From TrEMBL, chains A, B:
Nudix hydrolase domain ranges (all copies): 35-157
The name this protein goes by in its record: NUDIX domain-containing protein
Pfam annotation, one family: NUDIX
Domain NrtR DNA-binding winged helix: 173-233
InterPro entries, A to Z: NUDIX_hydrolase-like_dom_sf, NUDIX_hydrolase_dom, WH-like_DNA-bd_sf, WH_DNA-bd_sf, WHD_NrtR
Domain of life assignment: Bacteria
Amino acid sequence: MGKEVGISTDDDRQFTPGLIKDARKLVDSYPRVPITVDCVIFGFEENDLKILLIRSDLEIFKGEWSLLGDFAADNEDLDEAAQRVLQQRTGMHDVYLEQVKIFSKPDRHPGGRVLTVAYCSLLSIEHIKLDKIENELHWHKVTEIKSMAFDHKEIMMECYRWLQKRIQEHPLGFNLLPKKFSLRELQNLYEAILNVKLDRRNFRKKFFSMDLLIDTGEMEDDVPHRPGKLYEFDFAKYENTKRRWTGIDF
Amino acid sequence: MGKEVGISTDDDRQFTPGLIKDARKLVDSYPRVPITVDCVIFGFEENDLKILLIRSDLEIFKGEWSLLGDFAADNEDLDEAAQRVLQQRTGMHDVYLEQVKIFSKPDRHPGGRVLTVAYCSLLSIEHIKLDKIENELHWHKVTEIKSMAFDHKEIMMECYRWLQKRIQEHPLGFNLLPKKFSLRELQNLYEAILNVKLDRRNFRKKFFSMDLLIDTGEMEDDVPHRPGKLYEFDFAKYENTKRRWTGIDF
DNA sequence: GCAAAAGTGTTATCATTACACCCATGG
DNA sequence: CCATGGGTGTAATGATAACACTTTTGC
Protein backbone atom coordinates (compact mmCIF):
# COMPACT_ATOMS: atom_id res chain seq x y z
CA MET A 1 0.00 0.00 0.00
CA GLY A 2 2.80 2.39 0.86
CA LYS A 3 4.08 2.18 -2.69
CA GLU A 4 0.72 2.89 -4.29
CA VAL A 5 0.18 5.86 -2.07
CA GLY A 6 3.53 7.31 -3.05
CA ILE A 7 3.08 6.91 -6.75
CA SER A 8 -0.44 8.11 -7.09
CA THR A 9 0.09 11.10 -4.85
CA ASP A 10 3.04 12.21 -6.94
CA ASP A 11 1.08 11.75 -10.17
CA ASP A 12 -1.89 13.64 -8.79
CA ARG A 13 0.20 16.58 -7.78
CA GLN A 14 1.28 17.06 -11.36
CA PHE A 15 -1.95 16.53 -13.22
CA THR A 16 -4.87 16.54 -10.74
CA PRO A 17 -6.76 14.64 -13.40
CA GLY A 18 -10.39 14.91 -12.30
CA LEU A 19 -10.22 16.53 -8.88
CA ILE A 20 -13.08 18.75 -7.90
CA LYS A 21 -12.00 22.18 -6.73
CA ASP A 22 -15.29 23.74 -5.78
CA ALA A 23 -16.90 21.64 -3.09
CA ARG A 24 -19.72 24.10 -2.64
CA LYS A 25 -20.72 23.91 -6.28
CA LEU A 26 -20.72 20.13 -6.01
CA VAL A 27 -22.99 20.19 -2.97
CA ASP A 28 -25.26 22.71 -4.66
CA SER A 29 -25.83 20.17 -7.39
CA TYR A 30 -27.19 17.57 -4.94
CA PRO A 31 -30.93 17.07 -4.55
CA ARG A 32 -32.29 18.35 -1.24
CA VAL A 33 -34.92 16.94 1.02
CA PRO A 34 -36.74 18.17 4.09
CA ILE A 35 -35.67 16.41 7.25
CA THR A 36 -37.39 16.24 10.61
CA VAL A 37 -36.68 14.74 13.99
CA ASP A 38 -39.32 12.77 15.90
CA CYS A 39 -38.95 12.09 19.59
CA VAL A 40 -40.26 8.93 21.19
CA ILE A 41 -40.40 10.06 24.79
CA PHE A 42 -40.85 7.22 27.25
CA GLY A 43 -42.00 7.61 30.80
CA PHE A 44 -43.02 5.24 33.56
CA GLU A 45 -46.04 5.86 35.72
CA GLU A 46 -48.28 3.59 37.76
CA ASN A 47 -46.40 0.54 36.54
CA ASP A 48 -47.01 1.33 32.90
CA LEU A 49 -44.60 2.33 30.22
CA LYS A 50 -45.93 5.47 28.63
CA ILE A 51 -45.13 7.71 25.74
CA LEU A 52 -45.75 11.41 25.23
CA LEU A 53 -47.97 12.30 22.26
CA ILE A 54 -49.89 15.14 20.76
CA ARG A 55 -52.75 15.31 18.32
CA SER A 56 -51.64 15.63 14.76
CA ASP A 57 -52.42 19.05 13.38
CA LEU A 58 -52.78 17.81 9.84
CA GLU A 59 -56.33 17.65 8.57
CA ILE A 60 -55.61 14.33 6.86
CA PHE A 61 -54.65 12.76 10.22
CA LYS A 62 -57.44 14.39 12.16
CA GLY A 63 -57.88 12.73 15.53
CA GLU A 64 -54.72 10.65 15.23
CA TRP A 65 -51.87 10.82 17.70
CA SER A 66 -48.46 11.96 16.66
CA LEU A 67 -44.92 11.92 17.99
CA LEU A 68 -43.31 15.17 18.99
CA GLY A 69 -41.30 16.37 16.06
CA ASP A 70 -40.11 19.33 14.12
CA PHE A 71 -38.02 19.98 11.06
CA ALA A 72 -34.33 20.50 11.45
CA ALA A 73 -33.42 24.17 11.21
CA ASP A 74 -30.67 25.40 8.94
CA ASN A 75 -27.28 24.29 10.16
CA GLU A 76 -28.73 22.54 13.15
CA ASP A 77 -27.18 19.27 14.26
CA LEU A 78 -29.94 16.70 14.52
CA ASP A 79 -29.11 15.76 18.10
CA GLU A 80 -29.59 19.40 18.97
CA ALA A 81 -32.82 19.54 17.04
CA ALA A 82 -34.14 16.64 19.09
CA GLN A 83 -33.05 18.28 22.33
CA ARG A 84 -34.80 21.43 21.19
CA VAL A 85 -38.06 19.61 20.51
CA LEU A 86 -37.90 18.06 23.95
CA GLN A 87 -37.14 21.33 25.56
CA GLN A 88 -39.95 23.13 23.79
CA ARG A 89 -42.51 20.50 24.65
CA THR A 90 -41.58 19.44 28.16
CA GLY A 91 -39.38 22.23 29.44
CA MET A 92 -36.70 19.62 30.21
CA HIS A 93 -33.13 19.89 29.00
CA ASP A 94 -30.12 17.62 29.36
CA VAL A 95 -32.40 14.67 29.07
CA TYR A 96 -31.36 11.17 28.07
CA LEU A 97 -31.67 11.08 24.31
CA GLU A 98 -30.35 8.74 21.68
CA GLN A 99 -30.64 8.50 17.94
CA VAL A 100 -32.33 5.31 16.85
CA LYS A 101 -32.98 5.25 13.12
CA ILE A 102 -33.75 7.28 10.09
CA PHE A 103 -36.98 6.60 8.24
CA SER A 104 -36.90 7.39 4.57
CA LYS A 105 -39.77 5.79 2.69
CA PRO A 106 -40.58 8.30 -0.02
CA ASP A 107 -44.31 8.21 0.72
CA ARG A 108 -44.18 8.31 4.50
CA HIS A 109 -45.44 11.91 4.62
CA PRO A 110 -48.59 12.99 2.75
CA GLY A 111 -47.02 16.35 1.88
CA GLY A 112 -44.19 14.82 -0.12
CA ARG A 113 -40.87 13.27 0.64
CA VAL A 114 -39.74 14.00 4.18
CA LEU A 115 -37.06 12.06 5.99
CA THR A 116 -37.27 11.74 9.74
CA VAL A 117 -34.76 10.72 12.34
CA ALA A 118 -36.24 8.96 15.34
CA TYR A 119 -34.84 9.80 18.75
CA CYS A 120 -35.55 7.90 21.90
CA SER A 121 -35.79 9.76 25.16
CA LEU A 122 -36.34 8.53 28.69
CA LEU A 123 -37.56 10.69 31.47
CA SER A 124 -38.98 10.52 34.90
CA ILE A 125 -42.61 11.56 34.60
CA GLU A 126 -43.01 12.94 38.07
CA HIS A 127 -40.38 15.61 37.46
CA ILE A 128 -42.29 17.08 34.59
CA LYS A 129 -44.84 19.78 34.44
CA LEU A 130 -46.44 19.75 31.04
CA ASP A 131 -47.04 23.46 31.03
CA LYS A 132 -47.88 23.45 27.36
CA ILE A 133 -51.16 21.65 27.00
CA GLU A 134 -51.27 22.43 23.31
CA ASN A 135 -52.55 19.71 21.02
CA GLU A 136 -53.62 17.63 24.02
CA LEU A 137 -50.05 16.79 24.86
CA HIS A 138 -50.11 13.95 27.34
CA TRP A 139 -48.95 10.47 28.27
CA HIS A 140 -50.33 7.31 26.72
CA LYS A 141 -49.78 3.71 27.70
CA VAL A 142 -47.60 2.14 25.05
CA THR A 143 -49.67 -1.02 25.06
CA GLU A 144 -52.87 0.83 24.36
CA ILE A 145 -51.89 2.86 21.34
CA LYS A 146 -53.71 1.53 18.35
CA SER A 147 -52.90 3.79 15.45
CA MET A 148 -50.93 6.93 14.86
CA ALA A 149 -50.39 9.59 12.22
CA PHE A 150 -47.77 9.10 9.49
CA ASP A 151 -45.61 6.02 10.09
CA HIS A 152 -45.34 6.98 13.74
CA LYS A 153 -46.66 3.66 14.99
CA GLU A 154 -43.83 1.93 13.18
CA ILE A 155 -41.34 4.43 14.57
CA MET A 156 -42.66 3.97 18.07
CA MET A 157 -42.46 0.18 17.82
CA GLU A 158 -38.93 0.37 16.53
CA CYS A 159 -37.98 2.54 19.49
CA TYR A 160 -39.81 0.25 21.89
CA ARG A 161 -37.84 -2.76 20.66
CA TRP A 162 -34.70 -0.68 20.85
CA LEU A 163 -35.52 0.15 24.47
CA GLN A 164 -36.23 -3.46 25.37
CA LYS A 165 -32.81 -4.44 24.14
CA ARG A 166 -30.91 -1.47 25.48
CA ILE A 167 -32.29 -1.66 28.97
CA GLN A 168 -30.87 -5.14 29.37
CA GLU A 169 -27.40 -4.01 28.43
CA HIS A 170 -27.20 -0.54 29.89
CA PRO A 171 -28.60 1.11 32.99
CA LEU A 172 -31.14 3.23 31.18
CA GLY A 173 -34.03 2.35 33.40
CA PHE A 174 -32.97 4.74 36.10
CA ASN A 175 -33.76 7.64 33.82
CA LEU A 176 -37.38 6.56 33.96
CA LEU A 177 -37.54 6.40 37.74
CA PRO A 178 -37.34 9.11 40.36
CA LYS A 179 -33.86 9.65 41.75
CA LYS A 180 -34.78 7.50 44.74
CA PHE A 181 -36.69 4.34 44.09
CA SER A 182 -37.54 1.04 45.71
CA LEU A 183 -36.44 -2.27 44.29
CA ARG A 184 -40.05 -3.10 43.64
CA GLU A 185 -40.38 -0.02 41.42
CA LEU A 186 -37.24 -1.04 39.58
CA GLN A 187 -38.54 -4.53 39.03
CA ASN A 188 -41.93 -3.25 37.92
CA LEU A 189 -40.14 -1.11 35.37
CA TYR A 190 -38.26 -4.06 33.93
CA GLU A 191 -41.34 -6.21 33.91
CA ALA A 192 -43.38 -3.54 32.13
CA ILE A 193 -40.75 -2.86 29.50
CA LEU A 194 -39.76 -6.45 28.81
CA ASN A 195 -43.26 -7.77 29.26
CA VAL A 196 -42.13 -10.64 31.46
CA LYS A 197 -42.50 -11.72 35.07
CA LEU A 198 -39.25 -11.87 36.99
CA ASP A 199 -38.45 -13.72 40.18
CA ARG A 200 -38.26 -11.18 42.95
CA ARG A 201 -35.43 -12.79 44.88
CA ASN A 202 -33.29 -13.36 41.83
CA PHE A 203 -33.93 -9.85 40.62
CA ARG A 204 -32.78 -8.39 43.94
CA LYS A 205 -29.77 -10.68 44.05
CA LYS A 206 -28.77 -9.63 40.57
CA PHE A 207 -28.91 -5.93 41.27
CA PHE A 208 -27.27 -6.16 44.67
CA SER A 209 -24.44 -8.23 43.27
CA MET A 210 -23.69 -5.48 40.74
CA ASP A 211 -23.12 -3.25 43.73
CA LEU A 212 -24.36 -0.17 41.90
CA LEU A 213 -27.26 0.73 44.15
CA ILE A 214 -26.70 3.19 46.95
CA ASP A 215 -28.83 2.68 50.05
CA THR A 216 -30.17 6.13 50.87
CA GLY A 217 -31.18 5.11 54.35
CA GLU A 218 -34.67 6.32 53.55
CA MET A 219 -37.81 4.25 53.28
CA GLU A 220 -40.94 4.35 51.20
CA ASP A 221 -43.77 6.36 52.61
CA ASP A 222 -47.53 6.19 52.30
CA VAL A 223 -47.59 2.58 51.22
CA PRO A 224 -50.28 0.29 52.62
CA HIS A 225 -47.75 -2.40 53.55
CA ARG A 226 -44.27 -2.75 54.92
CA PRO A 227 -42.23 0.07 53.40
CA GLY A 228 -39.22 -0.77 51.26
CA LYS A 229 -35.81 0.84 51.27
CA LEU A 230 -35.07 3.57 48.78
CA TYR A 231 -31.97 3.41 46.60
CA GLU A 232 -30.11 5.60 44.16
CA PHE A 233 -28.18 4.35 41.18
CA ASP A 234 -24.44 4.91 41.33
CA PHE A 235 -23.86 6.33 37.84
CA ALA A 236 -20.31 7.40 38.66
CA LYS A 237 -19.28 3.94 39.80
CA TYR A 238 -20.93 2.38 36.77
CA GLU A 239 -18.92 4.60 34.45
CA ASN A 240 -15.71 3.43 36.04
CA THR A 241 -16.47 -0.25 36.13
CA LYS A 242 -18.35 -1.06 32.97
CA ARG A 243 -16.76 -4.03 31.43
CA ARG A 244 -15.85 -5.25 28.01
CA TRP A 245 -17.94 -8.18 27.05
CA THR A 246 -16.77 -10.96 24.75
CA GLY A 247 -19.26 -13.74 24.47
CA ILE A 248 -20.72 -15.17 21.31
CA ASP A 249 -24.42 -15.74 21.70
CA PHE A 250 -27.03 -16.06 19.05
CA MET B 1 -58.46 8.73 27.77
CA GLY B 2 -61.59 7.47 26.08
CA LYS B 3 -63.52 10.47 27.33
CA GLU B 4 -60.98 13.02 26.15
CA VAL B 5 -60.86 11.46 22.73
CA GLY B 6 -64.59 11.62 22.40
CA ILE B 7 -64.92 15.23 23.43
CA SER B 8 -62.11 16.70 21.47
CA THR B 9 -62.89 14.77 18.33
CA ASP B 10 -66.43 16.04 18.41
CA ASP B 11 -65.28 19.58 18.92
CA ASP B 12 -62.74 19.31 16.13
CA ARG B 13 -65.24 18.05 13.67
CA GLN B 14 -67.27 21.20 14.15
CA PHE B 15 -64.59 23.81 14.17
CA THR B 16 -61.29 22.25 12.98
CA PRO B 17 -59.60 25.05 14.85
CA GLY B 18 -56.05 25.04 13.54
CA LEU B 19 -55.87 21.96 11.35
CA ILE B 20 -53.60 22.14 8.35
CA LYS B 21 -55.32 21.19 5.13
CA ASP B 22 -52.49 21.42 2.66
CA ALA B 23 -49.76 19.04 3.71
CA ARG B 24 -47.73 19.74 0.60
CA LYS B 25 -47.63 23.45 1.31
CA LEU B 26 -46.46 22.69 4.83
CA VAL B 27 -43.65 20.47 3.60
CA ASP B 28 -42.66 23.05 1.02
CA SER B 29 -42.06 25.47 3.85
CA TYR B 30 -39.47 23.19 5.48
CA PRO B 31 -35.78 23.82 4.95
CA ARG B 32 -34.11 21.23 2.76
CA VAL B 33 -30.70 19.66 3.00
CA PRO B 34 -28.63 17.43 0.75
CA ILE B 35 -28.37 13.89 2.04
CA THR B 36 -25.93 11.18 1.08
CA VAL B 37 -25.36 7.55 1.99
CA ASP B 38 -21.89 6.24 2.83
CA CYS B 39 -21.15 2.53 2.81
CA VAL B 40 -18.66 0.98 5.17
CA ILE B 41 -17.98 -2.24 3.33
CA PHE B 42 -16.19 -4.83 5.41
CA GLY B 43 -14.36 -7.82 4.04
CA PHE B 44 -12.08 -10.46 5.50
CA GLU B 45 -8.91 -11.56 3.75
CA GLU B 46 -5.70 -13.15 4.99
CA ASN B 47 -6.89 -12.94 8.57
CA ASP B 48 -7.42 -9.21 8.41
CA LEU B 49 -10.59 -7.23 8.58
CA LYS B 50 -10.62 -4.91 5.59
CA ILE B 51 -12.70 -2.10 4.25
CA LEU B 52 -13.28 -0.95 0.70
CA LEU B 53 -12.19 2.61 -0.07
CA ILE B 54 -11.57 4.98 -2.92
CA ARG B 55 -9.54 8.13 -3.24
CA SER B 56 -11.53 11.25 -2.54
CA ASP B 57 -12.12 13.22 -5.71
CA LEU B 58 -12.27 16.51 -3.89
CA GLU B 59 -9.24 18.73 -4.30
CA ILE B 60 -9.37 19.68 -0.64
CA PHE B 61 -9.02 16.00 0.39
CA LYS B 62 -6.41 15.19 -2.23
CA GLY B 63 -4.73 11.90 -1.46
CA GLU B 64 -7.15 11.01 1.33
CA TRP B 65 -9.24 7.87 1.34
CA SER B 66 -12.99 8.02 1.27
CA LEU B 67 -15.94 5.74 1.89
CA LEU B 68 -18.12 4.77 -1.04
CA GLY B 69 -21.03 7.13 -1.10
CA ASP B 70 -23.44 9.04 -3.23
CA PHE B 71 -26.30 11.42 -2.71
CA ALA B 72 -29.79 10.06 -2.41
CA ALA B 73 -31.73 10.55 -5.60
CA ASP B 74 -35.18 12.08 -5.65
CA ASN B 75 -37.71 9.81 -4.05
CA GLU B 76 -35.15 7.14 -3.34
CA ASP B 77 -35.41 5.19 -0.12
CA LEU B 78 -32.04 5.39 1.62
CA ASP B 79 -31.69 1.63 1.96
CA GLU B 80 -32.07 1.43 -1.78
CA ALA B 81 -29.57 4.20 -2.30
CA ALA B 82 -27.03 2.26 -0.27
CA GLN B 83 -27.73 -0.90 -2.25
CA ARG B 84 -27.27 1.08 -5.42
CA VAL B 85 -23.89 2.43 -4.32
CA LEU B 86 -22.76 -1.09 -3.51
CA GLN B 87 -24.01 -2.39 -6.79
CA GLN B 88 -22.34 0.34 -8.79
CA ARG B 89 -19.01 -0.10 -7.07
CA THR B 90 -18.74 -3.84 -6.56
CA GLY B 91 -21.25 -5.32 -8.95
CA MET B 92 -22.84 -7.16 -6.01
CA HIS B 93 -26.50 -6.98 -5.18
CA ASP B 94 -28.58 -8.48 -2.39
CA VAL B 95 -25.69 -7.97 -0.06
CA TYR B 96 -25.90 -7.81 3.71
CA LEU B 97 -26.49 -4.17 4.51
CA GLU B 98 -27.68 -2.37 7.59
CA GLN B 99 -28.24 1.23 8.53
CA VAL B 100 -26.03 2.33 11.38
CA LYS B 101 -26.29 6.03 12.07
CA ILE B 102 -26.89 9.42 10.57
CA PHE B 103 -24.13 12.00 10.83
CA SER B 104 -25.30 15.55 10.86
CA LYS B 105 -22.63 17.95 12.09
CA PRO B 106 -23.26 21.10 10.05
CA ASP B 107 -19.59 21.44 9.09
CA ARG B 108 -18.82 17.84 8.24
CA HIS B 109 -18.65 18.57 4.51
CA PRO B 110 -16.50 21.39 3.13
CA GLY B 111 -19.11 22.21 0.52
CA GLY B 112 -21.78 23.10 3.04
CA ARG B 113 -24.23 21.22 5.15
CA VAL B 114 -24.64 17.64 3.98
CA LEU B 115 -26.14 14.89 6.10
CA THR B 116 -24.97 11.36 5.57
CA VAL B 117 -26.40 8.04 6.60
CA ALA B 118 -23.80 5.37 7.31
CA TYR B 119 -24.53 1.86 6.13
CA CYS B 120 -22.56 -1.18 7.11
CA SER B 121 -22.10 -3.95 4.61
CA LEU B 122 -20.40 -7.31 4.93
CA LEU B 123 -19.20 -9.33 2.01
CA SER B 124 -17.00 -12.20 1.13
CA ILE B 125 -14.00 -10.72 -0.65
CA GLU B 126 -13.19 -13.71 -2.77
CA HIS B 127 -16.52 -13.52 -4.55
CA ILE B 128 -15.84 -10.06 -5.81
CA LYS B 129 -14.26 -8.83 -8.93
CA LEU B 130 -13.62 -5.15 -8.57
CA ASP B 131 -14.15 -4.47 -12.25
CA LYS B 132 -14.28 -0.75 -11.68
CA ILE B 133 -10.80 0.29 -10.70
CA GLU B 134 -11.78 3.92 -10.68
CA ASN B 135 -10.33 6.08 -7.95
CA GLU B 136 -8.01 3.27 -6.85
CA LEU B 137 -10.91 1.33 -5.37
CA HIS B 138 -9.43 -1.36 -3.20
CA TRP B 139 -9.31 -3.06 0.20
CA HIS B 140 -7.52 -1.60 3.21
CA LYS B 141 -6.77 -3.17 6.55
CA VAL B 142 -9.01 -1.50 9.10
CA THR B 143 -6.18 -1.33 11.61
CA GLU B 144 -3.90 0.51 9.24
CA ILE B 145 -6.11 3.35 8.17
CA LYS B 146 -4.77 6.54 9.62
CA SER B 147 -6.83 9.36 8.24
CA MET B 148 -9.70 9.76 5.85
CA ALA B 149 -11.58 12.46 3.99
CA PHE B 150 -14.53 14.24 5.62
CA ASP B 151 -15.52 12.63 8.93
CA HIS B 152 -15.17 9.23 7.34
CA LYS B 153 -12.71 7.98 9.93
CA GLU B 154 -15.27 8.65 12.62
CA ILE B 155 -17.96 6.95 10.55
CA MET B 156 -15.76 3.95 9.95
CA MET B 157 -14.93 3.60 13.64
CA GLU B 158 -18.57 3.86 14.58
CA CYS B 159 -19.36 1.07 12.13
CA TYR B 160 -16.45 -0.99 13.38
CA ARG B 161 -17.73 -0.79 16.95
CA TRP B 162 -21.18 -1.59 15.66
CA LEU B 163 -19.78 -4.69 13.94
CA GLN B 164 -17.89 -5.82 17.04
CA LYS B 165 -21.09 -5.75 19.01
CA ARG B 166 -23.38 -7.18 16.37
CA ILE B 167 -21.19 -10.12 15.50
CA GLN B 168 -21.43 -11.38 19.06
CA GLU B 169 -25.20 -11.32 19.00
CA HIS B 170 -26.01 -12.31 15.44
CA PRO B 171 -24.45 -14.63 12.91
CA LEU B 172 -23.13 -11.88 10.69
CA GLY B 173 -19.66 -13.28 10.39
CA PHE B 174 -20.67 -15.83 7.81
CA ASN B 175 -21.31 -13.04 5.34
CA LEU B 176 -17.59 -12.28 5.48
CA LEU B 177 -16.50 -15.85 4.82
CA PRO B 178 -16.81 -18.01 1.76
CA LYS B 179 -19.85 -20.26 1.73
CA LYS B 180 -17.68 -23.11 2.96
CA PHE B 181 -15.19 -22.38 5.68
CA SER B 182 -13.08 -24.11 8.27
CA LEU B 183 -13.52 -23.55 11.97
CA ARG B 184 -10.08 -22.00 12.06
CA GLU B 185 -11.16 -19.39 9.53
CA LEU B 186 -14.25 -18.67 11.59
CA GLN B 187 -12.19 -18.25 14.72
CA ASN B 188 -9.65 -16.06 12.94
CA LEU B 189 -12.53 -13.88 11.86
CA TYR B 190 -13.81 -13.45 15.40
CA GLU B 191 -10.34 -12.83 16.72
CA ALA B 192 -9.63 -10.21 14.07
CA ILE B 193 -12.89 -8.36 14.58
CA LEU B 194 -12.96 -8.49 18.36
CA ASN B 195 -9.24 -8.09 18.71
CA VAL B 196 -8.95 -10.88 21.25
CA LYS B 197 -7.46 -14.36 21.45
CA LEU B 198 -9.99 -17.12 21.98
CA ASP B 199 -9.47 -20.62 23.28
CA ARG B 200 -9.69 -22.97 20.33
CA ARG B 201 -11.41 -25.81 22.12
CA ASN B 202 -13.98 -23.62 23.79
CA PHE B 203 -14.64 -21.83 20.54
CA ARG B 204 -15.30 -25.09 18.73
CA LYS B 205 -17.41 -26.38 21.58
CA LYS B 206 -19.48 -23.21 21.54
CA PHE B 207 -20.21 -23.36 17.83
CA PHE B 208 -20.85 -27.08 17.73
CA SER B 209 -23.23 -26.85 20.65
CA MET B 210 -25.29 -24.29 18.72
CA ASP B 211 -25.74 -26.97 16.11
CA LEU B 212 -25.90 -24.46 13.28
CA LEU B 213 -22.91 -25.65 11.26
CA ILE B 214 -23.42 -28.13 8.49
CA ASP B 215 -20.57 -30.52 7.84
CA THR B 216 -20.09 -30.43 4.08
CA GLY B 217 -17.99 -33.59 4.08
CA GLU B 218 -15.29 -31.65 2.29
CA MET B 219 -11.85 -30.75 3.57
CA GLU B 220 -9.48 -27.87 3.20
CA ASP B 221 -7.09 -28.14 0.31
CA ASP B 222 -3.63 -26.74 -0.34
CA VAL B 223 -2.85 -26.14 3.31
CA PRO B 224 0.66 -26.96 4.55
CA HIS B 225 -0.66 -28.92 7.51
CA ARG B 226 -3.45 -31.27 8.40
CA PRO B 227 -6.55 -30.06 6.53
CA GLY B 228 -9.65 -29.10 8.47
CA LYS B 229 -13.26 -29.90 7.73
CA LEU B 230 -15.33 -27.40 5.80
CA TYR B 231 -18.68 -26.23 7.13
CA GLU B 232 -21.61 -24.18 5.98
CA PHE B 233 -23.79 -22.08 8.24
CA ASP B 234 -27.38 -23.21 8.53
CA PHE B 235 -29.15 -19.88 8.06
CA ALA B 236 -32.55 -21.52 7.69
CA LYS B 237 -32.29 -23.36 10.99
CA TYR B 238 -31.03 -20.24 12.70
CA GLU B 239 -34.07 -18.30 11.56
CA ASN B 240 -36.34 -20.89 13.11
CA THR B 241 -34.59 -21.22 16.41
CA LYS B 242 -33.37 -17.81 17.40
CA ARG B 243 -34.35 -17.20 20.92
CA ARG B 244 -35.68 -14.40 23.02
CA TRP B 245 -33.16 -13.27 25.55
CA THR B 246 -34.02 -11.82 28.93
CA GLY B 247 -30.98 -11.21 31.04
CA ILE B 248 -29.96 -8.00 32.69
CA ASP B 249 -26.27 -7.43 32.24
CA PHE B 250 -24.38 -4.21 32.46
C1' DG C 1 10.86 -36.83 10.66
C1' DC C 2 9.62 -32.24 11.36
C1' DA C 3 6.60 -28.28 11.42
C1' DA C 4 1.99 -26.77 11.76
C1' DA C 5 -2.43 -26.84 12.74
C1' DA C 6 -6.66 -30.23 13.49
C1' DG C 7 -9.12 -32.62 16.57
C1' DT C 8 -10.68 -33.93 21.18
C1' DG C 9 -12.60 -34.01 27.33
C1' DT C 10 -12.47 -32.99 31.96
C1' DT C 11 -12.62 -30.18 35.84
C1' DA C 12 -13.49 -25.89 38.48
C1' DT C 13 -15.86 -21.85 38.71
C1' DC C 14 -19.55 -18.91 38.09
C1' DA C 15 -24.24 -17.41 36.89
C1' DT C 16 -28.92 -18.60 36.66
C1' DT C 17 -33.05 -20.68 38.10
C1' DA C 18 -36.53 -22.37 41.10
C1' DC C 19 -38.55 -22.15 45.30
C1' DA C 20 -41.02 -20.76 50.87
C1' DC C 21 -41.07 -18.59 55.09
C1' DC C 22 -41.06 -14.80 58.49
C1' DC C 23 -41.42 -9.59 59.03
C1' DA C 24 -43.10 -4.81 59.16
C1' DT C 25 -46.58 -1.75 58.24
C1' DG C 26 -51.49 0.28 57.52
C1' DG C 27 -56.03 -0.33 58.10
C1' DC D 1 -55.55 -9.59 63.34
C1' DC D 2 -55.44 -9.41 58.57
C1' DA D 3 -53.81 -8.14 54.04
C1' DT D 4 -49.98 -6.68 51.51
C1' DG D 5 -45.72 -6.72 49.89
C1' DG D 6 -40.58 -6.50 52.01
C1' DG D 7 -36.82 -9.07 53.02
C1' DT D 8 -33.92 -13.28 52.97
C1' DG D 9 -30.92 -18.42 51.50
C1' DT D 10 -30.06 -22.76 49.40
C1' DA D 11 -29.68 -26.33 46.15
C1' DA D 12 -29.67 -27.83 41.19
C1' DT D 13 -28.56 -26.79 36.80
C1' DG D 14 -26.23 -24.95 33.00
C1' DA D 15 -22.54 -22.00 30.91
C1' DT D 16 -17.96 -20.61 30.76
C1' DA D 17 -12.92 -20.92 31.32
C1' DA D 18 -8.71 -23.12 31.80
C1' DC D 19 -5.79 -26.47 30.22
C1' DA D 20 -2.44 -30.88 26.99
C1' DC D 21 -1.92 -34.55 24.15
C1' DT D 22 -2.52 -37.25 19.79
C1' DT D 23 -3.39 -37.05 14.69
C1' DT D 24 -2.89 -35.74 9.92
C1' DT D 25 -0.92 -33.52 6.28
C1' DG D 26 2.95 -31.04 3.30
C1' DC D 27 7.51 -30.47 2.79
